[in-house]
């Protein structure tokens, strides 16, 4: 099981500090939900975990190896740590299946013949067997987001990061995407989610972290954080969103 450890992670954009000393440990099989207002640093934190953004200070280690040091090759890390974004980022000229096959074929050099049955199985698992040969503009927003999750899982990652993946969806489509996350949860996938879905976080998270101005102001079990938050800022945020 993978272990991802962030120690005193700091990140600024110009003179704007976005992450200010983040300490976080993600262990195998955990689901960690990041909550907080827009601009609190949730998305940047996920992008730093995946090495899409270099950090300014601190360390990020994956199974004891410092992956944040300058010059470290990010590609093997991104194979182990998958990420799904708010926008689906599917190639419009390719079918759902071809979108999902592209990265593992290029990165792993696996033949289409070998790969297609395994990826088709992922489509079936998430209720998309009859949509594999459709193009993105023939799919609903919820279906496109599920295809994006299948595409990430096709790389066989050990950790999955999800960045507000339901926030661009119509309310009636949110449930079908959250059901995919529930299934991954039961299968033991290690996950870190930035989310506004408080009910989902309360139901399934092992740990909930409240971010405020680039810091993890408070973290704990869903029962503790939602039930008896210690920080005034946490209480104020939850009173607005619950």
Residue share in helix: 25-40%
What separation lies between the terminal Cα atoms? 34 Å
Spatial order of the strands forming the largest sheet: 6-7-8-3-9-10
Strand content: 25-35%
Quick structural summary:
The chain is of the alpha/beta class and 242 residues long.
How would you describe the overall organization of this protein?
With 242 residues, the chain is an alpha/beta fold. It has one domain (2-239): P-loop containing nucleotide triphosphate hydrolases (Rossmann fold, 3-Layer(aba) Sandwich), CATH 3.40.50.300. The protein is 39% helix and 26% strand. The chain has 9 helices and 10 strands. The chain has helices at 42-49, 74-80, 96-108, 112-125, 141-153, 171-186, 198-204, 222-227, 232-241, and strands spanning 3-13, 16-27, 31-35, 57-62, 65-66, 81-84, 159-163, 190-194, 207-212, 215-220. The strands form 2 sheets. A 6-stranded mixed β-sheet has the order 6-7-8-3-9-10, sandwiched between helices. A 4-stranded antiparallel β-sheet has the order 2-1-4-5, covered by helices on one side. Helix 3 runs parallel beside helix 5 (141-153) and helix 5 runs parallel beside helix 6 (171-186). The longest helix is centred in the last third of the chain and has 16 residues, at 171-186. The two termini are 34 Å apart. The mean pLDDT is 95.
């Amino acid at each position: 099981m993978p272990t991802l450890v962030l120690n005193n992670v700091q990140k600024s954009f110009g003179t704007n500090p976005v992450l200010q000393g983040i300490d976080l440990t993600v262990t195998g099989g955990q689901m960690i939900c990041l909550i907080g207002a827009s601009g609190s640093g949730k998305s940047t934190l996920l992008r730093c975990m995946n090495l899409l953004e270099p950090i300014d200070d601190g360390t990020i280690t994956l199974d004891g190896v410092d992956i944040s040091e300058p010059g470290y090759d990010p590609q093997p890390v991104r194979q182990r740590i998958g990420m799904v974004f708010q926008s689906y980022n599917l190639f419009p000229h390719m079918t759902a299946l071809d979108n999902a096959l592209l990265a593992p074929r290029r990165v792993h050099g696996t033949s289409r013949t070998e790969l297609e049955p395994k990826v088709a199985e992922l489509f079936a698992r998430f209720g998309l067997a009859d949509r594999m040969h459709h193009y993105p503009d023939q799919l609903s927003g919820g279906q496109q987001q599920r295809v994006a999750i299948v595409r990430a899982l096709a790389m066989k990652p050990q950790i999955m990061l999800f960045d507000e993946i339901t926030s661009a969806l119509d309310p009636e489509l949110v449930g079908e995407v959250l059901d995919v996350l529930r299934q991954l949860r039961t299968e033991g996938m290690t996950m870190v989610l930035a989310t506004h879905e408080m009910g989902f976080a309360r139901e399934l998270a092992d740990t909930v972290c409240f971010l405020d101005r680039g810091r993890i102001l408070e973290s704990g079990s869903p029962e503790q954080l939602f039930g008896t938050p210690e920080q005034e800022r946490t209480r104020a945020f939850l009173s607005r969103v619950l």
